[in-house]
Design goal:
This protein is α/β, with parallel strands linked by helices. The protein has a domain of 175 residues: Rossmann fold (3-Layer(aba) Sandwich). Helix content is 36%, strand content 21%. The protein contains 9 helices and 9 strands. The longest helix is centred in the first third of the chain and has 14 residues. The chain is globular and about 50 Å long. The relative contact order is 0.16.
Length: 251
């Protein structure tokens, strides 16, 4: 769903041969594949999901014909500790494509991650942060409100929160980075049918707290009802969204 965002960022930063890219929270590796197709050397970090990291490895192997991993691709479950001896050979681009602005504590976690990653990049290297756009521009907000309401029944679970306009700038400054440009990209969520939409949204993890507070059947029922306004006459589900990104610079 975030392919337009990946494309916009890669184009704006001229990712290609000569780029050494560090991807924080690389997930299942789609953005890495797109950067690899542009000729970039890559390091992907995915610490939250071994399954997604395994899928990223499979995708990068398959991209190379399935014989062996590309020599210029590295996939790890934590930040590299064997950074280059000279900043001249350090990472030239850092991306954190996992959007913040929906789960309580997500800005603190991203701040710590960026602060730890910044020394691995060249001085002045661009660092990309991503957040959800304004709620009125994101159809998915209505569905996430269901998750927040259900999760509120269990005070011990992870809380959802509204995104704030200055989230990205605040994170960058707290991580010791200098904001240096931003943009917005339309990223509609499109699904073949209601069942596909339900599976896709629940796979994001944003509904885990709601499931814990109630049960899976209740969450499925209420999310399905919230999706009804976005069903089209052919049965597909179409949810317009806007995501914003910030380009910051390392010190």
């Amino acid at each position: 769903m975030l392919v337009p965002l990946y494309e916009a960022v890669h184009e704006r930063l001229d990712v290609g041969p000569g780029t050494r890219l560090l991807s924080l929270g690389c997930g299942s590796g789609l953005a890495l594949l797109m950067a690899a197709s542009r000729g970039a050397a890559l390091t992907g970090v995915e610490s939250s999901s071994p399954a997604r990291l395994a899928l990223a490895r499979e995708r990068l192997l398959r991209e190379n014909g399935g014989a062996r991993a590309r020599a210029d691709v590295r996939l790890v479950d934590r930040l590299p500790t064997d950074g280059p001896a000279a900043r001249a050979s350090a990472y030239t681009v850092v991306t954190a494509f996992e959007p913040i602005g929906r789960v309580a504590g997500d800005t603190e976690a991203l701040t710590a991650l960026l602060a730890a990653a910044a020394p691995l990049a060249r001085r002045g290297a661009p660092v990309v942060l991503v957040g959800w756009g304004p709620p009125e521009r994101c159809a998915t907000t209505a569905v996430l409100r269901v998750a927040a309401r259900l999760a509120d029944q269990d005070r011990g679970t992870v809380r959802l929160r509204p995104g704030l306009r200055d989230d990205l700038e605040d994170v960058a400054r707290r991580a010791g980075l200098r904001p240096d440009g931003s943009g917005r990209v339309a990223c509609p969520f499109g699904y073949a049918d209601l069942d596909s939409a339900l599976r896709g949204l629940l796979s994001t993890g944003l509904f885990d707290a709601a499931v814990t507070a109630t049960d899976q059947a209740q969450v499925d029922k209420e999310v399905s009802e919230a999706l009804q306004p976005y069903r089209r006459s052919d049965g597909t589900v179409w949810m317009p969204n806007v995501f914003q990104y910030l380009i910051a610079r390392t010190p």
